[in-house]
Design goal:
- The protein contains 14 helices and 21 strands.
- With 471 residues, the chain is of the alpha/beta class.
- The chain has a 10-stranded mixed sheet, sandwiched between helices. A 6-stranded mixed sheet has the order 16-17-21-18-19-20, with helices on both faces.
Length: 471
């Protein structure tokens, strides 16, 4: 078949494009901007163009796959809609590909990419194996798609944006977090929670639903006191088997205790319903990944993985690009790049940096993602960024949105009640960072801040690191 992708440069779209290409189909697509990912797709034999020009659409297309991130007023979208060629959302295609398989789906307002990538890596080290569609580039697989025709398991990231995850009916479901996000779609936090409940209740009764402890339903007498839109537990059908996990409590079915840092690697003891697995190791990782590792371990053990395989899988997990991604890790200077774009994610990233590098001077660069998210969560962003020693804000990355009057990065800046804050253009960041003499640098955001990363790394290595080494 001949597949055409509108928005092929998206991480989820590119995974599907690779899947169909590797299965012998003809694949091409459009994206509004060239990126490292689209360059890689081209190198793999997928034709990509960057002009919104219907004349560049190939002939004889059998199916158009599109993402809601592509505006409906795009010329190519409108042309294809009128052409009569079948069109399907990415989420619908993903749902169809997982039917008849033992789908392991990971949902959550944050943590899902790392957790799903960990699960895929762990299962790939067992007899079960798996296929996977990931929301990031796994360093272990050097890809966001894993193909294994012999395995019944398929691991997917269940995206709550645009209610995409409701296309899935998993055998094993994981929910990592239900914090307010995508309120431009849902309107209220309560409606977002209702969508998570619907997703959770679509779990196969023969499988299991694995929930982070604070979002599991506890039938306690004060439950009615939760106000609409607050962080209330999810209501799950009694037909669905539930298990819980945590890295901060000893009540769940799976939890981590005795977390410690030794020479940059994290160790913890994993308590399961059967026994304690001592000294599990995560190399070059961060605190919040311990919790993700507990969730991934719970899934792997439910799938029959043994202790030796689990221990080896976690120890050899290399992480995901742009998820607490060490670009420089030297005694004199550390540079970490992270996808954090929600206040909870930013807090978790900074907490981990402060834990791993106590007493170090930390400079953080943050690019807000979406006008609507900035407007909804400006206070929370300001509070999350406050622990940094120096805070650099870049202009908002709009993605699919039109500007909202009065909503700029300055909205966050003015709410940060410290003097160590700056607002600058991407071209000014390097010079400012150099002047601030950091020990640790962290870039955060889900927009095009990733284009700044290689340039900043080069500057840090050639100027600051060299200078510190020669002192």
């Amino acid at each position: 078949m001949n597949y055409y992708f509108l928005g092929i440069g998206g991480i989820g779209m590119s995974a599907l494009a690779r899947f169909f290409k590797q299965n012998g189909h003809t694949v091409s697509g459009y994206d509004h901007t060239e990126s490292e990912l689209t360059k890689k797709l081209v190198s793999e034999g997928i034709a990509v163009h960057y002009d919104d020009d219907p004349t560049q659409i190939p002939k004889n297309i059998d199916l158009v796959i599109y993402t809601p991130a592509v505006p409906t007023d795009t010329l190519e979208f409108q042309h294809l809609q009128k052409s009569g060629i079948p069109m399907k959302k990415r989420s619908m295609v993903l749902g169809e590909l997982t039917r008849g398989k033992k789908c392991i789906a990971v949902a959550g307002s944050h943590g899902k990419t790392t957790t799903s990538s960990m699960i895929a890596w762990l299962l790939s080290k067992s007899e079960s194996g798996c296929s996977a569609f990931l929301g990031g580039i796994s360093k272990n697989f050097n890809s966001n798609v894993v193909l294994n025709a012999k395995s019944d398991y398929v691991v997917v990231e269940a995206d709550e944006y645009d209610r995409s995850f409701l296309q899935l009916h998993p055998y094993i479901s994981v929910i990592t977090a239900t914090d307010p996000d995508h309120l431009d779609i849902y309107g209220t936090h309560e409606k977002l929670l209702q969508a998570f409940e619907q997703y959770a209740n679509q779990t196969n009764p023969d499988g299991v639903l694995i929930l982070k402890e604070d979002i599991a339903e506890h039938h306690h007498e004060h439950e009615e006191e939760h106000e609409e839109g607050s962080h209330r537990p999810l209501r799950i059908s009694e037909e669905i088997k539930q298990m819980t996990y945590s890295a901060r409590s000893i009540e769940p079915d799976y939890y981590a205790i005795n977390v410690r840092n030794y020479k940059g690697n994290l160790f913890f003891d994993l308590r399961t319903p059967e026994k304690v697995l001592f000294d599990m190791e995560l190399p070059e990782s961060c605190l919040y990944n311990v919790e993700n590792a507990v969730a991934a371990s719970a899934v792997a053990l439910q799938c029959g993985m043994d202790e030796y395989q689990l221990r080896h899988g976690l120890k050899t997990f290399k992480g995901i690009r742009r998820r607490f991604d060490f670009r420089i890790n030297e005694k004199e200077l550390v540079y970490i790049d992270d996808y954090a774009h929600h206040p909870k994610e930013i807090s978790a990233t900074i907490e981990s940096i402060k834990y791993l590098f106590p007493g170090k001077r930390v400079v953080g660069i943050f690019q807000p993602h979406l006008y609507s998210r900035t407007a909804d969560l400006a206070d929370e962003f300001a509070e999350a960024l406050k622990p940094l020693d120096e805070i650099i804000l870049m202009p908002i990355y709009p993605a699919r949105e039109k500007p909202i009057p009065g909503v700029t990065s300055h909205l966050i800046l003015k709410k940060i009640d410290t003097m160590n804050k700056y607002l600058c253009m991407p071209s000014q960041v390097g010079e400012l960072v150099e002047a601030l003499c950091p020990d640790v640098v962290v870039t955060m955001g889900a927009g095009d801040i990733d284009r700044l990363v290689p340039k900043l790394e080069k500057l840090l290595r050639e100027d600051i690191l060299e200078e510190k080494t020669n002192e």
